[in-house]
Automatic annotation (TrEMBL):
<feature type="domain" description="T-SNARE coiled-coil homology">
    <location>
        <begin position="119"/>
        <end position="181"/>
    </location>
</feature>
<dbReference type="GO" id="GO:0016082">
    <property type="term" value="P:synaptic vesicle priming"/>
</dbReference>
<feature type="domain" description="T-SNARE coiled-coil homology">
    <location>
        <begin position="1"/>
        <end position="33"/>
    </location>
</feature>
<comment type="function">
    <text>SNAREs, soluble N-ethylmaleimide-sensitive factor-attachment protein receptors, are essential proteins for fusion of cellular membranes. SNAREs localized on opposing membranes assemble to form a trans-SNARE complex, an extended, parallel four alpha-helical bundle that drives membrane fusion. SNAP29 is a SNARE involved in autophagy through the direct control of autophagosome membrane fusion with the lysososome membrane. Also plays a role in ciliogenesis by regulating membrane fusions.</text>
</comment>
<feature type="compositionally biased region" description="Basic and acidic residues">
    <location>
        <begin position="89"/>
        <end position="99"/>
    </location>
</feature>
<dbReference type="GO" id="GO:0019905">
    <property type="term" value="F:syntaxin binding"/>
</dbReference>
<comment type="similarity">
    <text>Belongs to the SNAP-25 family.</text>
</comment>
<dbReference type="GO" id="GO:0005484">
    <property type="term" value="F:SNAP receptor activity"/>
</dbReference>
<keyword id="KW-0175">Coiled coil</keyword>
<comment type="subunit">
    <text>Forms a SNARE complex, composed of VAMP8, SNAP29 and STX17, involved in fusion of autophagosome with lysosome. Interacts with multiple syntaxins including STX6. Interacts with EIPR1. Interacts with STX17; this interaction is increased in the absence of TMEM39A.</text>
</comment>
<feature type="coiled-coil region">
    <location>
        <begin position="143"/>
        <end position="177"/>
    </location>
</feature>
<dbReference type="GO" id="GO:0000421">
    <property type="term" value="C:autophagosome membrane"/>
</dbReference>
<dbReference type="InterPro" id="IPR000727">
    <property type="entry name" value="T_SNARE_dom"/>
</dbReference>
<dbReference type="GO" id="GO:0098793">
    <property type="term" value="C:presynapse"/>
</dbReference>
<dbReference type="GO" id="GO:0060170">
    <property type="term" value="C:ciliary membrane"/>
</dbReference>
<feature type="region of interest" description="Disordered">
    <location>
        <begin position="68"/>
        <end position="99"/>
    </location>
</feature>
<dbReference type="GO" id="GO:0031201">
    <property type="term" value="C:SNARE complex"/>
</dbReference>
Amino acid sequence: ELVRQGEALKRTEQMVDKMDQDLKTSQRHINSIKSVWGGLVNYFKAKPPESKPEQNGAPEYYANSRLKEAMMSSKEQESKYQESHPNLRKLDNSDNDFNKADLVSSVQTDAYPKNQQLRAYHQKIDTNLDEMSSGLSRLKSLALGLQTEIEEQDDMLDRLTKKVETLDVNIKNTDRKVRQL
């Protein structure tokens, strides 16, 4: 949603820049209509380029790379999580006793109690804590990406607000000049 909003802000900024360029062109026409002297000045004055409107420091909009990386890693981690989560995957009956021998051999045996049941519970708790840790790291990276994206869009909004205020003043001045004609 933030990426979509950023793209909309960028399009809005481009439209405001185009409006500003059109307003400058209309100002030239008003000067030509207003007096002969204004027409002569506009005739000899270099015409502004008709190409792209100036961007005034607005770079091409791309979503924050930090946010994109966080979203990609989040999707990867989510798929891995869904594959390993007992309620989200298809149950395999051969896996119901959760291979206690494999769990015990894969983890250091001296780090857990000697009781088989306690050892299995401790290992299960460690596994759950690892999953929680990876989930929290995923949330952290998403939050940092969102924060950076929001800060960039806030700067864009500030820039856009200044442009719109300037454009509003210029439109009012141009309107007043047209009414005087």
